[in-house]
Specification:
Blueprint lengths: L18 E5 L2 H9 L3 E5 L9 H11 L1
Parallel strand pairs: 1-2
């Protein structure tokens, strides 16, 4: 059976710790930081608490 060539990751891809942008779930960002990752957390939640009808009404007010 022929051997398959060894797959190598992209150079530089895993040479350094991950740098992460986390949007929304702060607990996820805290867990990543505790694991040693560099994290930028963005406090975000969907408009109108995720209610599509209310979000539509709010978008019409801003138009």
């Amino acid at each position: 059976m022929p051997s398959q060539p060894e797959e190598r990751p992209e150079p530089g891809l895993i040479d350094r710790p991950p740098q992460i942008v986390n949007i929304g779930l702060e607990l996820f960002a805290l867990e990543l930081e505790a694991a040693g990752a560099t994290v930028v957390h963005i406090d975000w939640s969907p408009p109108a608490g995720g209610d599509p009808e209310l979000a539509d009404l709010l978008s019409r007010l801003g138009a």
